[in-house]
C-alpha cells in the first residue's frame, strides 16, 4: 500500500444502520465507495508533532492526557463504473479527513 497524508473531502451516507463514507474527492476526482472492507479506531500520531522542536507539543500529548482517537475505513472505491476498484484507507480525526493509503 502506498502511503499518503493528503486532505480529502468525504461524503457520508448510511448503509444498513451505520454511517459510512459513500464517496470521496481526491486530487480533483470523485471516487465512489463500492464496499467498506474494514473499519477500526486508533490513536492519533501525536509523536510526529512532538518530534518537531519548532512546534509546541499539542495539548493532548502524553503528559497532558490521552492522545485523541481517529477512525479509519478501508474501502474499495473507483472513479467510475468502468474502472476497477482500488483499496483506499480513509482517516477521520478532529481535524478532518485524510487519505492515508492507496493500493490500486
Brief account:
It contains one helix and seven strands; from the N terminus they run E-E-E-E-H-E-E-E.
Tell me what the structure shows.
By secondary structure, this protein is mainly β. Helix content is 5%, strand content 61%. It has a seven-stranded antiparallel β-sheet, with no helix packed on it. A hairpin with a 2-residue loop joins strand 3 and strand 4. The longest helix is centred in the middle third of the chain and has 5 residues. The model has no long low-confidence stretch (mean pLDDT 84).
Note the main attributes of this structure.
single chain, 104 residues, mainly beta, seven-stranded antiparallel sheet, globular
**Residue share in β-strands:** over 45%
Which sequence of strands runs across the widest sheet? 1-7-6-5-4-3-2
State the secondary-structure class.
mainly beta
Uncertain segments of ≥5 residues (pLDDT<50)?
none
Helix content: under 10%
Helix-strand pattern, N to C? EEEEHEEE
Shape: globular
What's the end-to-end separation, in Å?
8 Å
C-alpha-based Rg, rounded: 15 Å
Give the averaged pLDDT, no decimals.
84
Largest sheet: 7 strands, antiparallel
The total strand number stands at 7
The number of helical elements comes to: 1
Helices and strands, with pairings:
Layout: E1 2-7, E2 9-15, E3 18-26, E4 29-43, H1 46-50, E5 69-78, E6 86-93, E7 96-103
Antiparallel strand pairs: 1-7, 2-3, 3-4, 4-5, 5-6, 6-7
